[in-house]
Amino acid sequence: MTAPLGASDEEIEAVLKEKQDWIRKSREKVIARSQKTIEEPALSKEELQKLAQKVEVYADKWEPVLGVKAISFTLRRMKTRWGSCSISSKRIRINTKLAYYPDRCLEYVVVHELCHLLEAGHNKKFWGQVEKALPDYKETIKLLKE
């Protein structure tokens, strides 16, 4: 708490008493929020290399099947997405958090982003391409949401 320099101890205590319910509720919210947003530790150089190798394996597997070719794959720590694709530059970004998930999740994200090189949006044609490549993709999405 901050208080004006000239405030007496009695004035400070009075404000604290008056606001004690608000202070308690605010404190509980902060604690609850911090418990929900605990992040995984950053990946080591070796773990990043291993993840990059897996991405390369999946790209080599699926690019010829889908008939597309990405210019590059970049690993990035992302807060809200598992991957992203710049269609015009054919550059794909993969979330490093996928290192903590089963390999099928990484494979799904690679396929998903490669399918964007065929179809920009998430329309019926796009999901048809994903399903053709990975018939069980809906189960994998469930894993990613857990």
TrEMBL record:
InterPro entries: UTP_pyrophosphatase-like (IPR053136), YgjP-like_metallopeptidase (IPR002725)
Domain of life the protein comes from: Bacteria
Residue stretches making up the YgjP-like metallopeptidase domain: 49-145
This protein's name: M48 family metallopeptidase
Higher taxonomy: Bacteria, Bacillati, Bacillota, Clostridia, Lachnospirales
